[in-house]
Amino acid sequence: MAHIVITSGPTRQYLDPVRYLTNASSGRMGVSLAQAALDLGHQVTVISGPVSLDYPSEAKVLWVTTTQEMLDATRIAFSTADGLIGAAAPCDYMPEAVGTSKLQKTGNDITIHLKETPDIVATLAANKSPKQWVVAFALETEDVRFRAIVKLSRKACDMIVSNSAQAMNSDENNVEVILKGGTVLDQLYGPKPLVAAGILRLIDKHLIAPCANT
Ligand code: C5P
């Protein structure tokens, strides 16, 4: 049995108390991955941004709003866990300045300066112990496999699940699972629970079992 941390859903970066940047992630893949991990007997902690779905009751769920909050909660949970699956779609940019009261319209256009938020999987993969593993997701619209392999290496992850943009807010997914080094392990397609079960079987075989034997 492994303790697996799963990031899930979008994050939000506020411009003022009522307006924010976000994306269309529904959290459905995170729900399916959590259930698939539980079905294999693993302990699951989910760090979730705001979504309207329910996670399995056997999973511990920590709710966050911003990317920095997701990083902080994931760092703590991962420090005592075996592996991390980064299924969230964290907001990559945040406004440099956040208004404390609602921005008022003046009749003039405004310019908002954005800065990059921290990368959760890259930060934690860079500091993990040799026995811990990190799995990332990659969502691309073109050169899908090539960009996923580049991301796998740049973020120093152990495995990457490459999917296309149609996975966003859909009940279905179509993915390629790629191991560190670039080996394509499998292609999985169908309803997200089925795809998640396939991903967890590959994680068990290629990341969890080898650690148990060392
Ligand atoms: O770079 P991109 O957003 O395509 O990378 C996707 C992978 O990186 C996913 O596993 C996602 O959860 C993770 N990620 C992250 N923190 C970010 C952005 C992406 O953990 N700020």
Q: What is the residue-averaged pLDDT?
A: 94
Bound molecules: cytidine-5'-monophosphate
Overall 3D geometry?
globular
| Rg, nearest Å | 18 Å
Distance between the termini: 15 Å
- Tell me about the largest β-sheet: 8 strands, mixed
**What strand line-up does the widest sheet have?**
5-4-1-6-9-10-11-12
- Low-pLDDT stretches are none
Quickly give the structural class.
alpha/beta
The CATH superfamily bears the name: CoaB-like
Which strand-content bin applies to the residues? 25-35%
What's the CATH class label? Alpha Beta
Describe this structure in words.
The chain is of the alpha/beta class. Helix 1 (28-39) packs across helix 5. It has an 8-stranded mixed β-sheet with strand order 5-4-1-6-9-10-11-12, with helices on both faces. The protein is globular, with a radius of gyration of 18 Å. Helix content is 29%, strand content 28%. It has one domain: 3-Layer(aba) Sandwich (Rossmann fold). It has helices at residues 28-39, 67-78, 120-126, 144-154, 192-212; strands spanning 3-8, 13-14, 20-21, 43-48, 60-63, 83-86, 93-95, 114-116, 133-140, 159-164, 172-179, 184-191. It binds cytidine-5'-monophosphate (C5P). Cytidine-5'-monophosphate (C5P) is lined by residues 7, 67, 86, 88, 90, 92, 117, 119-121, 136-139, 151.
